[in-house]
């Protein structure tokens, strides 16, 4: 149950208050690098889990929860600092909260959840790039962010179809 990938995921949870403290202390660009460190732990835990066949049910549930929780912390810090609009924050929050709640409901109902796919990983990278643009005050940062928000909703729709297909196949084989 507790292996290196899961420990890295827990470290990502622990980086959330560190990120918030550094951001709120006015070191916004340093906070971005803490966010990148969290992203690195995400890449590492996934790589190690797949490479060494250490994928666990706990890790499959905690990993996306850590990602979404970190992203919600980032969204809140950016909106309360006035760096992004409330509308953009609401759209991002709605999507991430929906993914968290949906995954939890499906998990506790014994349904299989869809593992991260290429679109999900691409969306995460694009979010990091959009946040970089926001933090470094790029002229079209908010427009780029809205494009990524749109892509993230498309990705969510793809996940929903994959979830339905995965669980339909499960119920047919039972």
UniProtKB/TrEMBL annotation:
BP GO terms, sorted: phosphatidylglycerol biosynthetic process
Pfam families per the UniProt record, alphabetical: CDP-OH_P_transf
Superkingdom classification of source: Bacteria
Localization per record: Membrane
GO molecular function: CDP-diacylglycerol-glycerol-3-phosphate 3-phosphatidyltransferase activity
Reported function: This protein catalyzes the committed step to the synthesis of the acidic phospholipids.
Protein name as it appears in the record: Phosphatidylglycerophosphate synthase
Organism: Paenibacillus piri
């Amino acid at each position: 149950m507790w292996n290196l990938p899961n420990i890295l995921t827990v470290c990502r949870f622990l980086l959330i208050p560190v990120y918030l403290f550094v951001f709120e202390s006015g070191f916004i660009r340093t906070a971005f690098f803490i966010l990148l460190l969290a992203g690195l732990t995400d890449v590492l835990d996934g790589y190690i889990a797949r490479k060494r066949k250490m994928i666990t049910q706990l890790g499959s549930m905690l990993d996306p929860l850590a990602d979404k929780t970190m992203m919600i912390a980032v969204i809140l810090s950016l909106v309360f600092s006035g760096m992004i609009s409330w509308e953009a924050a609401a759209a991002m929050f709605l999507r991430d909260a929906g993914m968290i709640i949906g995954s939890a409901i499906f998990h506790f109902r014994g349904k299989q959840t869809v593992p991260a796919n290429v679109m999900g990983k691409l969306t995460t990278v694009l979010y990091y790039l959009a946040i970089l643009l926001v933090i470094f005050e790029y002229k079209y940062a908010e427009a780029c962010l809205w494009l990524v928000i749109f892509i993230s909703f498309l990705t969510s729709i793809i996940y929903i179809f994959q979830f339905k297909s995965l669980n339909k196949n499960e119920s047919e084989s039972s």
